[in-house]
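Thread: "does anyone have the structure for this chain?"

Original post by V.I.:
We have the sequence but no experimental structure in hand. Need at least a predicted one for the grant figures.
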Amino acid sequence: MAHRLELSYNWRLPVMYSSIGLVISAGLLTRGRLPGWWVVLLVLVAMWGVFIALVWLRTQASLMVDGTVLEVRTRRVFHHLDAADVVAVRQVRTPHGPSHQLLVRDSGGPEGTSRSVTVPTALLRGGHPTLFRWILSRAPQAELDQGSRRTVEELQRRGLLP
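Reply from O.Q.:
Generated one for you, tokens below.
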């Protein structure tokens, strides 16, 4: 039975610390009541809201392998990719580490069109081995770029891939 991979980081701790910091700062600002304290409070709340939104967006990443189908979720969009449609794999740099972009033949569009789907492997525990195990076994026709080939070699060296 297929299951989704877990996130590779603990999102609860930064949310908890930022929330505690906001409450303490808000308490100190309202108690001091210096001129312009409410403007500073609004800025702090806005910055906290942006931080929480960014953390929430990162928690939306998921990856699940079910036979020849790879289900990828980036933010709010689910992509169901068939192994036969994968044309190429490209490594992309993200702030969290290397992730991979799959170039997929678009079966719903005009003939010969393709689309790219970014797989957030850097955000998921076991994301790299799971993705490349699926590619090597189910989509061997996919062309790997230099970065992806290096990742496969490193995973094989570590014993995470056959």
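V.I.: this helps a lot. The chain has two domains: 12-59, 62-157.
O.Q.: and Residues 62-157 form a domain with the PH-domain like fold (CATH 2.30.29).
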